[in-house]
Amino acid sequence: MKKQLIYIICLLTLRAWGQSPYIHKVYEYMPAPGQFVNELPEYEEGDTKNDMRLKAEECIADNEQILVSLGGYGGYIVFGFDHMVENKPGKYDFKIMANAFYAAANPNGEASREGGSCEPGIVMVSYDANGNGKPDDEWYELAGSEYFKSETIKKYRLTYYKPDENKVRTPDNNYPYLNDTTYIHWKSNQETQGYLYRNTFHNQSYFPLWVDADSLVFEGTKLANNYVDESGTGTYYVQYAYHWGYVDNHPNADDRSNFNIEWAVDQNGNPVQLPGIHFIKVYTAVNQYCGWLGETSTEIMGAVDLHVRGQDIFVPVFTQRIGLDYTDINLKPDETALLTATVVPVNATNTQITWKSKDIGIATVNNGYVTAIAEGTTVISAITNDGYYIAKCNVTVENVSGVESVYKPFRKVAYEGNSLYLTGFENMTCELYSINGYKLADFQCFSDHEEFRINLSQGVFILKIKNQIHNHSIKVNVLKNKL
Ligand SMILES: [Ca+2]
Ligand SMILES: [Ca+2]
Ligand SMILES: [Ca+2]
Ligand SMILES: [Ca+2]
After folding, report:
1. Nearest ligand to the CA atom of 307
2. Which residues sit with Cβ closer than 5 angstroms to ligand 2, an ion?
3. pLDDT at residue 326 in the model
4. Residues contacting residue 90 through CB under 8 Å, at least 6 positions apart
5. Which pTM does this prediction carry?
6. CATH 2.60.40.1080: which residues of the chain?
7. For 241, what's the count of Cα atoms within 13 Å in the CB-facing half-sphere?
8. Fewer Cβ atoms within 10 A, N terminus or C terminus of the chain?
9. How confident is the model over 84-112, as pLDDT tens digits?
10. Which one is the CATH code of 321-482: 3.40.50.880, 3.50.50.60, 2.60.40.1080, 3.30.499.10?
11. Backbone phi, then psi, for 152, in 5-degree steps?
Protein backbone atom coordinates (compact mmCIF):
# COMPACT_ATOMS: atom_id res chain seq x y z
CA MET A 1 0.00 0.00 0.00
CA LYS A 2 2.77 2.40 1.00
CA LYS A 3 4.76 1.46 -2.08
CA GLN A 4 1.74 2.12 -4.24
CA LEU A 5 1.27 5.55 -2.67
CA ILE A 6 4.90 6.50 -3.28
CA TYR A 7 4.52 5.34 -6.87
CA ILE A 8 1.45 7.55 -7.35
CA ILE A 9 3.19 10.56 -5.78
CA CYS A 10 6.18 10.02 -8.09
CA LEU A 11 3.87 9.83 -11.09
CA LEU A 12 2.10 13.04 -10.12
CA THR A 13 5.41 14.82 -9.51
CA LEU A 14 6.76 13.66 -12.86
CA ARG A 15 3.60 14.89 -14.54
CA ALA A 16 3.91 18.26 -12.87
CA TRP A 17 7.56 18.48 -13.90
CA GLY A 18 6.56 17.80 -17.46
CA GLN A 19 4.12 20.66 -17.53
CA SER A 20 5.20 24.11 -18.59
CA PRO A 21 3.02 26.97 -17.34
CA TYR A 22 3.72 28.81 -20.60
CA ILE A 23 2.48 28.54 -24.17
CA HIS A 24 3.74 25.39 -25.86
CA LYS A 25 2.50 25.78 -29.40
CA VAL A 26 0.87 28.25 -31.78
CA TYR A 27 -1.62 26.43 -34.02
CA GLU A 28 -2.70 29.31 -36.21
CA TYR A 29 -1.81 32.95 -36.76
CA MET A 30 -4.08 35.02 -38.96
CA PRO A 31 -3.89 38.76 -38.31
CA ALA A 32 -6.34 41.18 -39.87
CA PRO A 33 -4.76 44.10 -41.77
CA GLY A 34 -3.02 46.62 -39.55
CA GLN A 35 -0.05 48.96 -39.25
CA PHE A 36 2.01 46.37 -37.32
CA VAL A 37 1.18 43.45 -39.63
CA ASN A 38 4.21 42.05 -41.49
CA GLU A 39 6.33 43.64 -38.74
CA LEU A 40 5.25 41.91 -35.48
CA PRO A 41 6.39 39.31 -36.42
CA GLU A 42 8.35 40.32 -39.48
CA TYR A 43 7.37 38.90 -42.86
CA GLU A 44 10.26 38.03 -45.12
CA GLU A 45 9.98 37.41 -48.85
CA GLY A 46 8.67 33.90 -49.48
CA ASP A 47 7.33 33.28 -45.98
CA THR A 48 4.33 30.93 -45.98
CA LYS A 49 1.40 30.84 -43.59
CA ASN A 50 3.22 28.10 -41.69
CA ASP A 51 6.43 30.16 -41.52
CA MET A 52 4.45 33.02 -40.02
CA ARG A 53 2.79 30.64 -37.55
CA LEU A 54 6.25 29.47 -36.43
CA LYS A 55 7.48 33.05 -36.13
CA ALA A 56 4.48 33.90 -33.94
CA GLU A 57 5.23 30.79 -31.87
CA GLU A 58 8.85 31.87 -31.36
CA CYS A 59 7.54 35.20 -30.04
CA ILE A 60 5.01 34.01 -27.48
CA ALA A 61 5.88 30.38 -26.57
CA ASP A 62 8.04 29.46 -23.57
CA ASN A 63 7.64 32.88 -21.95
CA GLU A 64 9.64 34.66 -24.67
CA GLN A 65 7.29 37.66 -24.27
CA ILE A 66 7.76 39.20 -27.71
CA LEU A 67 4.75 41.10 -29.04
CA VAL A 68 2.61 39.62 -31.78
CA SER A 69 0.06 41.94 -33.39
CA LEU A 70 -3.35 40.61 -34.36
CA GLY A 71 -4.14 43.61 -36.59
CA GLY A 72 -7.60 45.18 -36.79
CA TYR A 73 -10.98 43.65 -35.97
CA GLY A 74 -11.10 39.85 -36.13
CA GLY A 75 -7.38 39.11 -36.53
CA TYR A 76 -6.58 36.08 -34.39
CA ILE A 77 -4.09 33.62 -32.96
CA VAL A 78 -4.69 30.07 -31.66
CA PHE A 79 -2.33 28.57 -29.11
CA GLY A 80 -2.14 25.88 -26.46
CA PHE A 81 -0.14 24.50 -23.56
CA ASP A 82 1.54 21.09 -23.21
CA HIS A 83 -1.34 19.99 -20.98
CA MET A 84 -4.96 20.74 -20.19
CA VAL A 85 -5.45 23.98 -18.23
CA GLU A 86 -7.67 22.95 -15.35
CA ASN A 87 -10.81 24.90 -14.58
CA LYS A 88 -10.75 25.43 -10.82
CA PRO A 89 -14.10 26.65 -9.48
CA GLY A 90 -14.11 30.26 -8.36
CA LYS A 91 -10.50 30.73 -9.41
CA TYR A 92 -8.79 32.41 -12.33
CA ASP A 93 -7.26 29.72 -14.53
CA PHE A 94 -4.88 31.49 -16.92
CA LYS A 95 -3.37 34.89 -17.65
CA ILE A 96 -2.73 36.38 -21.08
CA MET A 97 0.04 38.95 -21.28
CA ALA A 98 -0.06 41.94 -23.62
CA ASN A 99 1.03 45.59 -23.63
CA ALA A 100 -1.97 47.50 -22.27
CA PHE A 101 -1.20 50.48 -20.04
CA TYR A 102 -3.08 53.30 -18.37
CA ALA A 103 -2.24 56.86 -19.34
CA ALA A 104 -0.59 58.93 -16.63
CA ALA A 105 -2.29 62.15 -17.72
CA ASN A 106 -5.83 62.33 -18.92
CA PRO A 107 -7.33 65.69 -19.81
CA ASN A 108 -10.85 64.65 -18.82
CA GLY A 109 -9.77 64.70 -15.19
CA GLU A 110 -11.65 61.58 -14.18
CA ALA A 111 -8.54 59.89 -12.98
CA SER A 112 -10.22 56.88 -11.46
CA ARG A 113 -11.41 55.72 -14.87
CA GLU A 114 -8.80 53.35 -16.26
CA GLY A 115 -7.78 54.29 -19.76
CA GLY A 116 -4.77 54.70 -21.96
CA SER A 117 -3.74 52.08 -24.45
CA CYS A 118 -6.41 49.42 -23.98
CA GLU A 119 -7.04 47.33 -27.10
CA PRO A 120 -9.51 44.62 -26.08
CA GLY A 121 -9.29 41.15 -27.55
CA ILE A 122 -11.91 38.45 -27.08
CA VAL A 123 -10.88 35.03 -25.73
CA MET A 124 -12.33 31.74 -26.91
CA VAL A 125 -11.48 28.38 -25.39
CA SER A 126 -11.73 24.79 -26.56
CA TYR A 127 -11.57 21.40 -24.90
CA ASP A 128 -9.92 18.66 -26.95
CA ALA A 129 -13.06 16.54 -26.93
CA ASN A 130 -11.91 14.12 -29.64
CA GLY A 131 -8.49 13.81 -27.98
CA ASN A 132 -6.48 14.21 -31.19
CA GLY A 133 -4.34 17.07 -29.86
CA LYS A 134 -5.66 19.45 -32.52
CA PRO A 135 -7.94 22.48 -32.13
CA ASP A 136 -10.73 20.97 -34.24
CA ASP A 137 -13.33 20.84 -31.46
CA GLU A 138 -16.06 23.21 -30.37
CA TRP A 139 -15.05 26.76 -29.38
CA TYR A 140 -16.63 28.70 -26.54
CA GLU A 141 -16.39 32.44 -25.99
CA LEU A 142 -15.40 33.67 -22.55
CA ALA A 143 -18.21 36.12 -21.83
CA GLY A 144 -16.46 39.23 -20.50
CA SER A 145 -18.08 42.28 -18.94
CA GLU A 146 -19.50 43.49 -22.29
CA TYR A 147 -20.90 40.19 -23.58
CA PHE A 148 -24.54 40.72 -22.60
CA LYS A 149 -24.66 44.45 -23.33
CA SER A 150 -26.87 45.74 -26.12
CA GLU A 151 -23.97 47.58 -27.82
CA THR A 152 -22.14 44.28 -28.33
CA ILE A 153 -22.76 42.79 -31.77
CA LYS A 154 -22.77 39.01 -32.12
CA LYS A 155 -21.96 37.30 -35.43
CA TYR A 156 -20.30 40.43 -36.76
CA ARG A 157 -18.59 39.70 -40.07
CA LEU A 158 -15.96 41.91 -41.62
CA THR A 159 -14.36 41.61 -45.05
CA TYR A 160 -11.08 43.38 -45.85
CA TYR A 161 -10.08 43.80 -49.50
CA LYS A 162 -6.48 43.43 -50.56
CA PRO A 163 -5.15 46.88 -51.52
CA ASP A 164 -3.26 47.87 -54.63
CA GLU A 165 -0.02 49.01 -53.00
CA ASN A 166 0.76 51.23 -56.00
CA LYS A 167 -2.59 53.05 -56.08
CA VAL A 168 -2.77 56.84 -56.03
CA ARG A 169 -2.84 57.84 -52.34
CA THR A 170 -5.47 60.12 -50.85
CA PRO A 171 -3.87 61.94 -47.92
CA ASP A 172 -5.91 63.70 -45.25
CA ASN A 173 -5.18 67.42 -45.57
CA ASN A 174 -5.97 68.11 -41.93
CA TYR A 175 -3.82 65.30 -40.58
CA PRO A 176 -0.68 65.01 -42.71
CA TYR A 177 0.41 61.77 -40.98
CA LEU A 178 -2.59 60.04 -42.61
CA ASN A 179 -1.12 59.60 -46.08
CA ASP A 180 -3.80 57.32 -47.55
CA THR A 181 -7.39 57.43 -46.30
CA THR A 182 -8.63 54.96 -48.94
CA TYR A 183 -5.98 52.31 -48.36
CA ILE A 184 -7.69 49.07 -47.29
CA HIS A 185 -11.41 48.90 -47.95
CA TRP A 186 -13.61 46.99 -45.48
CA LYS A 187 -17.30 46.08 -45.40
CA SER A 188 -19.30 44.59 -42.56
CA ASN A 189 -22.49 42.55 -42.47
CA GLN A 190 -24.03 45.50 -40.53
CA GLU A 191 -24.18 47.56 -43.73
CA THR A 192 -21.19 49.64 -42.73
CA GLN A 193 -18.00 50.15 -44.66
CA GLY A 194 -14.87 52.19 -44.47
CA TYR A 195 -11.14 52.20 -44.92
CA LEU A 196 -8.17 51.27 -42.85
CA TYR A 197 -5.88 54.25 -43.38
CA ARG A 198 -2.19 54.21 -44.08
CA ASN A 199 0.02 56.49 -41.98
CA THR A 200 3.50 57.91 -42.26
CA PHE A 201 4.75 55.93 -39.24
CA HIS A 202 4.50 52.54 -40.96
CA ASN A 203 5.51 52.13 -44.57
CA GLN A 204 5.23 48.37 -45.13
CA SER A 205 2.09 46.73 -46.52
CA TYR A 206 -0.63 46.48 -43.85
CA PHE A 207 -2.23 43.45 -45.55
CA PRO A 208 -0.72 40.08 -44.53
CA LEU A 209 1.69 39.49 -47.44
CA TRP A 210 1.63 35.68 -47.22
CA VAL A 211 -2.09 35.68 -48.10
CA ASP A 212 -2.85 35.25 -51.81
CA ALA A 213 -6.61 35.77 -51.58
CA ASP A 214 -8.11 39.10 -52.67
CA SER A 215 -10.04 39.45 -49.43
CA LEU A 216 -9.98 38.30 -45.83
CA VAL A 217 -13.12 37.56 -43.81
CA PHE A 218 -13.33 37.59 -40.00
CA GLU A 219 -16.37 36.77 -37.91
CA GLY A 220 -17.18 36.94 -34.22
CA THR A 221 -18.43 39.20 -31.46
CA LYS A 222 -17.69 42.91 -31.79
CA LEU A 223 -17.45 45.25 -28.84
CA ALA A 224 -18.45 48.91 -29.00
CA ASN A 225 -15.66 51.41 -29.59
CA ASN A 226 -13.74 52.11 -26.40
CA TYR A 227 -11.89 55.28 -27.35
CA VAL A 228 -12.60 58.91 -26.62
CA ASP A 229 -10.83 61.79 -28.34
CA GLU A 230 -10.30 63.62 -25.04
CA SER A 231 -8.61 66.56 -26.77
CA GLY A 232 -11.55 67.04 -29.13
CA THR A 233 -9.01 67.91 -31.80
CA GLY A 234 -7.59 64.51 -32.68
CA THR A 235 -4.42 64.89 -30.64
CA TYR A 236 -5.19 62.88 -27.51
CA TYR A 237 -7.03 59.58 -27.77
CA VAL A 238 -7.78 57.55 -24.67
CA GLN A 239 -8.84 53.94 -25.09
CA TYR A 240 -10.81 53.14 -21.95
CA ALA A 241 -10.44 49.69 -20.44
CA TYR A 242 -13.46 47.45 -20.43
CA HIS A 243 -14.22 46.10 -17.00
CA TRP A 244 -12.98 42.52 -17.22
CA GLY A 245 -12.61 39.49 -19.47
CA TYR A 246 -10.52 40.87 -22.36
CA VAL A 247 -6.91 40.60 -23.52
CA ASP A 248 -4.67 43.71 -23.89
CA ASN A 249 -7.23 45.63 -21.85
CA HIS A 250 -5.60 45.89 -18.40
CA PRO A 251 -1.87 45.85 -17.54
CA ASN A 252 -0.29 42.44 -17.03
CA ALA A 253 0.15 43.00 -13.30
CA ASP A 254 -3.61 43.54 -12.90
CA ASP A 255 -5.72 40.49 -12.00
CA ARG A 256 -8.15 41.53 -14.73
CA SER A 257 -5.69 40.26 -17.34
CA ASN A 258 -6.55 36.82 -15.91
CA PHE A 259 -9.28 34.56 -17.27
CA ASN A 260 -11.74 32.15 -15.74
CA ILE A 261 -12.86 29.15 -17.78
CA GLU A 262 -16.22 29.33 -15.97
CA TRP A 263 -17.02 32.38 -18.14
CA ALA A 264 -17.37 30.07 -21.19
CA VAL A 265 -20.66 30.32 -23.08
CA ASP A 266 -21.98 28.53 -26.13
CA GLN A 267 -23.19 30.21 -29.32
CA ASN A 268 -26.49 31.09 -27.66
CA GLY A 269 -24.86 32.65 -24.63
CA ASN A 270 -25.62 29.72 -22.32
CA PRO A 271 -22.93 28.90 -19.73
CA VAL A 272 -20.84 25.81 -20.47
CA GLN A 273 -19.10 23.78 -17.81
CA LEU A 274 -15.67 22.62 -18.91
CA PRO A 275 -13.25 20.53 -16.80
CA GLY A 276 -10.44 22.46 -18.46
CA ILE A 277 -9.26 23.66 -21.84
CA HIS A 278 -6.52 22.72 -24.30
CA PHE A 279 -6.73 25.56 -26.83
CA ILE A 280 -7.15 29.32 -26.65
CA LYS A 281 -8.06 31.71 -29.45
CA VAL A 282 -7.67 35.48 -29.10
CA TYR A 283 -9.02 38.00 -31.62
CA THR A 284 -9.22 41.78 -31.85
CA ALA A 285 -12.66 42.79 -30.56
CA VAL A 286 -13.16 46.33 -31.90
CA ASN A 287 -13.25 47.88 -35.34
CA GLN A 288 -12.08 51.39 -34.59
CA TYR A 289 -9.61 53.94 -35.85
CA CYS A 290 -7.97 56.45 -33.51
CA GLY A 291 -6.34 59.14 -35.66
CA TRP A 292 -2.58 59.09 -35.38
CA LEU A 293 -2.73 55.95 -33.17
CA GLY A 294 -4.14 54.09 -36.17
CA GLU A 295 -6.46 51.14 -35.96
CA THR A 296 -6.94 49.46 -32.61
CA SER A 297 -5.19 46.11 -32.69
CA THR A 298 -4.86 43.59 -29.89
CA GLU A 299 -1.34 42.42 -29.13
CA ILE A 300 -0.31 39.36 -27.18
CA MET A 301 3.07 38.41 -25.76
CA GLY A 302 2.38 35.21 -23.84
CA ALA A 303 0.11 33.27 -21.53
CA VAL A 304 0.44 31.43 -18.22
CA ASP A 305 -1.41 28.53 -16.64
CA LEU A 306 -1.90 30.06 -13.18
CA HIS A 307 -2.46 26.67 -11.52
CA VAL A 308 0.78 25.15 -12.80
CA ARG A 309 2.57 28.29 -11.65
CA GLY A 310 0.99 27.75 -8.24
CA GLN A 311 -1.16 30.90 -8.22
CA ASP A 312 -4.55 30.50 -6.59
CA ILE A 313 -6.46 33.71 -7.27
CA PHE A 314 -10.15 34.09 -6.43
CA VAL A 315 -12.35 35.71 -9.07
CA PRO A 316 -14.11 38.63 -7.37
CA VAL A 317 -17.83 39.27 -7.71
CA PHE A 318 -17.65 42.16 -10.16
CA THR A 319 -19.90 45.19 -9.90
CA GLN A 320 -22.49 45.25 -12.69
CA ARG A 321 -24.24 48.58 -12.29
CA ILE A 322 -25.30 51.29 -9.86
CA GLY A 323 -28.60 53.07 -9.25
CA LEU A 324 -29.71 56.17 -7.33
CA ASP A 325 -33.00 56.66 -5.50
CA TYR A 326 -33.65 59.99 -7.28
CA THR A 327 -33.06 61.00 -10.89
CA ASP A 328 -34.04 64.66 -10.37
CA ILE A 329 -34.07 66.79 -7.25
CA ASN A 330 -34.85 70.43 -6.68
CA LEU A 331 -33.27 72.35 -3.86
CA LYS A 332 -33.10 75.92 -2.65
CA PRO A 333 -29.67 77.36 -1.86
CA ASP A 334 -28.29 76.00 1.44
CA GLU A 335 -30.71 73.07 1.46
CA THR A 336 -29.35 69.56 1.59
CA ALA A 337 -30.66 66.25 0.34
CA LEU A 338 -29.43 62.71 0.76
CA LEU A 339 -28.96 60.49 -2.28
CA THR A 340 -28.73 56.77 -1.70
CA ALA A 341 -26.85 54.61 -4.18
CA THR A 342 -27.41 50.90 -4.72
CA VAL A 343 -24.60 48.80 -6.16
CA VAL A 344 -25.63 45.65 -8.07
CA PRO A 345 -25.12 42.82 -7.31
CA VAL A 346 -25.50 43.23 -3.57
CA ASN A 347 -22.70 40.73 -2.96
CA ALA A 348 -20.20 42.63 -5.16
CA THR A 349 -16.68 42.35 -3.74
CA ASN A 350 -15.94 46.07 -4.04
CA THR A 351 -18.99 48.28 -3.39
CA GLN A 352 -17.08 51.55 -2.91
CA ILE A 353 -18.43 54.64 -4.63
CA THR A 354 -16.94 57.96 -5.69
CA TRP A 355 -19.33 60.92 -5.70
CA LYS A 356 -18.90 63.81 -8.09
CA SER A 357 -20.71 67.05 -8.86
CA LYS A 358 -20.35 68.40 -12.37
CA ASP A 359 -20.47 71.96 -11.03
CA ILE A 360 -19.51 72.39 -7.39
CA GLY A 361 -20.48 76.07 -7.66
CA ILE A 362 -24.12 74.91 -7.89
CA ALA A 363 -24.14 71.95 -5.53
CA THR A 364 -21.55 69.85 -3.76
CA VAL A 365 -21.78 66.22 -2.79
CA ASN A 366 -20.13 64.39 0.05
CA ASN A 367 -20.87 60.72 0.60
CA GLY A 368 -24.35 61.18 -0.93
CA TYR A 369 -25.20 64.39 0.91
CA VAL A 370 -25.99 67.07 -1.67
CA THR A 371 -25.67 70.67 -0.57
CA ALA A 372 -27.12 73.39 -2.77
CA ILE A 373 -24.79 76.35 -3.14
CA ALA A 374 -26.23 78.70 -5.75
CA GLU A 375 -28.96 78.82 -8.36
CA GLY A 376 -28.39 76.74 -11.49
CA THR A 377 -28.30 73.11 -12.54
CA THR A 378 -25.70 70.44 -12.07
CA VAL A 379 -25.40 66.68 -12.25
CA ILE A 380 -24.43 64.53 -9.30
CA SER A 381 -22.77 61.24 -10.27
CA ALA A 382 -22.22 58.16 -8.18
CA ILE A 383 -19.42 56.09 -9.74
CA THR A 384 -18.44 52.59 -8.73
CA ASN A 385 -14.75 52.21 -7.95
CA ASP A 386 -14.94 48.74 -9.51
CA GLY A 387 -15.83 49.08 -13.17
CA TYR A 388 -16.63 52.79 -13.34
CA TYR A 389 -20.40 52.34 -13.63
CA ILE A 390 -22.25 55.62 -13.23
CA ALA A 391 -25.67 56.70 -11.92
CA LYS A 392 -26.71 60.31 -12.32
CA CYS A 393 -29.12 62.70 -10.65
CA ASN A 394 -29.98 66.12 -12.07
CA VAL A 395 -29.97 68.81 -9.43
CA THR A 396 -31.77 72.10 -9.92
CA VAL A 397 -31.06 74.81 -7.42
CA GLU A 398 -33.47 77.71 -7.53
CA ASN A 399 -34.89 80.27 -5.23
CA VAL A 400 -37.98 81.33 -7.15
CA SER A 401 -41.57 81.41 -6.08
CA GLY A 402 -44.43 80.12 -8.17
CA VAL A 403 -42.71 77.19 -9.86
CA GLU A 404 -41.34 74.83 -7.27
CA SER A 405 -39.81 72.16 -9.44
CA VAL A 406 -38.62 72.19 -13.00
CA TYR A 407 -36.62 69.36 -14.38
CA LYS A 408 -37.05 69.86 -18.11
CA PRO A 409 -37.96 73.16 -19.78
CA PHE A 410 -41.31 71.71 -20.87
CA ARG A 411 -42.09 69.83 -17.65
CA LYS A 412 -43.04 71.70 -14.53
CA VAL A 413 -44.43 70.96 -11.12
CA ALA A 414 -45.94 73.85 -9.20
CA TYR A 415 -47.92 74.16 -5.99
CA GLU A 416 -50.07 77.21 -5.54
CA GLY A 417 -53.29 78.00 -3.71
CA ASN A 418 -53.87 74.41 -2.53
CA SER A 419 -53.42 73.01 -6.02
CA LEU A 420 -50.65 70.96 -7.52
CA TYR A 421 -50.09 71.88 -11.17
CA LEU A 422 -48.40 69.31 -13.41
CA THR A 423 -47.28 70.42 -16.86
CA GLY A 424 -45.91 68.07 -19.49
CA PHE A 425 -46.81 64.75 -17.89
CA GLU A 426 -49.54 63.60 -20.26
CA ASN A 427 -50.47 59.92 -19.86
CA MET A 428 -48.24 59.48 -16.84
CA THR A 429 -49.09 58.21 -13.40
CA CYS A 430 -48.19 60.35 -10.37
CA GLU A 431 -47.80 59.37 -6.78
CA LEU A 432 -47.19 61.91 -4.05
CA TYR A 433 -45.26 60.85 -0.96
CA SER A 434 -44.34 62.57 2.23
CA ILE A 435 -40.59 62.82 2.88
CA ASN A 436 -40.79 59.77 5.15
CA GLY A 437 -42.31 57.66 2.38
CA TYR A 438 -46.01 57.80 3.26
CA LYS A 439 -48.19 57.87 0.15
CA LEU A 440 -50.49 60.88 0.22
CA ALA A 441 -52.18 60.68 -3.15
CA ASP A 442 -52.05 59.16 -6.58
CA PHE A 443 -53.53 60.48 -9.74
CA GLN A 444 -53.38 60.13 -13.49
CA CYS A 445 -52.36 62.96 -15.85
CA PHE A 446 -54.62 62.73 -18.87
CA SER A 447 -53.63 66.02 -20.44
CA ASP A 448 -50.63 68.28 -20.73
CA HIS A 449 -51.85 70.54 -17.94
CA GLU A 450 -53.43 68.99 -14.87
CA GLU A 451 -54.54 70.57 -11.64
CA PHE A 452 -55.07 68.53 -8.49
CA ARG A 453 -56.64 70.00 -5.42
CA ILE A 454 -54.65 68.91 -2.40
CA ASN A 455 -53.84 70.60 0.86
CA LEU A 456 -50.14 70.40 1.65
CA SER A 457 -48.35 71.88 4.61
CA GLN A 458 -44.95 73.47 4.31
CA GLY A 459 -42.18 70.97 3.73
CA VAL A 460 -40.67 68.58 1.26
CA PHE A 461 -42.64 66.03 -0.75
CA ILE A 462 -41.61 63.46 -3.29
CA LEU A 463 -43.52 63.15 -6.53
CA LYS A 464 -42.99 59.91 -8.43
CA ILE A 465 -44.02 60.24 -12.05
CA LYS A 466 -43.94 57.33 -14.40
CA ASN A 467 -45.14 55.76 -17.60
CA GLN A 468 -43.90 52.65 -19.38
CA ILE A 469 -40.62 54.33 -20.33
CA HIS A 470 -39.86 56.99 -17.74
CA ASN A 471 -39.67 56.79 -14.01
CA HIS A 472 -38.78 60.05 -12.30
CA SER A 473 -38.68 61.15 -8.72
CA ILE A 474 -39.00 64.86 -8.14
CA LYS A 475 -38.56 66.61 -4.88
CA VAL A 476 -41.23 69.28 -4.32
CA ASN A 477 -40.66 72.05 -1.85
CA VAL A 478 -43.80 73.62 -0.53
CA LEU A 479 -42.72 77.00 0.74
CA LYS A 480 -44.22 79.03 3.53
CA ASN A 481 -45.17 81.98 1.34
CA LYS A 482 -47.29 79.67 -0.81
CA LEU A 483 -49.72 78.78 1.94
CA1 LIG B 1 -11.96 28.69 -12.97
CA1 LIG C 1 -9.25 17.97 -31.14
CA1 LIG D 1 -2.11 47.55 -30.97
CA1 LIG E 1 -1.86 46.77 -27.27
Report:
1. 1
2. 128, 130, 132, 134, 136-137
3. 87
4. 262, 314, 315
5. 0.80
6. 321-482
7. 28
8. N
9. 999 999 999 999 999 999 986 655 555 46
10. 2.60.40.1080
11. -85, 125
